[in-house]
Design a protein that fits this description.
The chain is an alpha/beta fold. The chain has two domains: 120 residues, Rossmann fold (3-Layer(aba) Sandwich), CATH 3.40.50; 102 residues, Winged helix-like DNA-binding domain superfamily/Winged helix DNA-binding domain (Arc Repressor Mutant, subunit A, Orthogonal Bundle). It contains eight helices and eleven strands. A five-stranded parallel sheet has the order 2-1-3-4-5, with helices on both faces. α2 packs parallel to α3 and α6 packs across α8. The protein is elongated and about 55 Å long.
């Protein structure tokens, strides 16, 4: 069973927390678990406890306080879906990210139906995992309605489906995450740098033009057929998702 490391640093995400953000990873592949632990703990004040079997993992998930659980499905002792059922059956709202090689549509749907908050297939990009970890933890500390609504735009954060009017869209992962991020902060002007850091976490300089591309693509999908613009560009400042742009003008 994993130990509980000491910590003194204060996380920039942990408003109101006097201690580190704690993550439980239940993963039987020891090398993968070490690499993920190292990657996550590169973020200041994040601490990861690791279990390699389902029995210990379920015990820790039910008896200790965590900000996030990263859960494999194929585990010795107790499988991941059973652990997820036990967590939700106990009334715990701890965010759960399923990290598994089982990535068929049926497996993804089962995981979401059982109460997972996100689902990432192996192999995966460490930058994407870190971005999802940070997003889930941010969201959990101020858990909103799963449906985000801005004007006639609806974003289903559980199903990752976007609707505007009668049209429903399933967006590519990074387009969806960009739109969801803007929606959580609807009405706020968010700088390009902040968006890049949120989506990529590190080495994002090589993606310096990608935000403009994503915004353009989102507009083509969501702002056609005479529907008014909702994703506004404020030159020299950033981007904002709103029914009306701040100051009444945008690019």
């Amino acid at each position: 069973m994993a130990g509980f490391p000491s910590h003194t640093a204060r996380s920039p995400f942990a408003k109101g927390h006097g201690q580190a953000l704690r993550i439980l990873m239940v993963e039987d592949e020891a090398r993968l678990a070490r690499n993920v632990k190292k990657g996550i703990e590169s973020i200041p004040s994040f601490v990861v406890d690791v279990c390699h079997d389902g029995v210990d993992g379920q015990h820790l998930a039910l008896t200790s306080s965590y900000d996030l659980v990263i859960l494999d499905l194929m585990l010795p002792g107790v499988d991941g879906l059973s652990i997820l059922q036990a967590i939700r059956g106990a009334g715990l709202t701890t965010p759960v990210l399923i990290l598994t090689a089982r990535t068929s549509k049926a497996d993804v749907v089962r995981g979401l139906d059982f109460g997972s908050d996100d689902y990432l297939g192996k192999p995966f990009d460490m930058g994407e995992l870190l971005a999802r970890v940070k997003t889930l933890i941010r969201r959990s500390h101020n858990r909103p309605d799963p449906i985000l609504r801005i004007g006639d735009l609806e974003i289903d954060t559980h199903r990752h489906v976007v609707r505007r009017g009668e049209a429903e869209h399933t967006l590519p992962a990074l387009e969806y995450r960009l739109l969801e991020y803007l929606a959580y902060r609807a009405g706020e002007v968010i700088s390009k740098t902040e968006i890049l850091e949120h989506l990529y976490d590190y080495n994002w300089e090589k993606f310096s033009n990608v935000i403009e591309v994503y915004i353009s693509t989102l507009r083509k999908k969501l702002e056609t057929d005479g529907r008014p613009r909702m994703s506004h560009t404020l030159r020299g400042q950033g981007y904002v998702l709103a029914v009306e742009p701040p100051g009444g003008s945008s690019a």
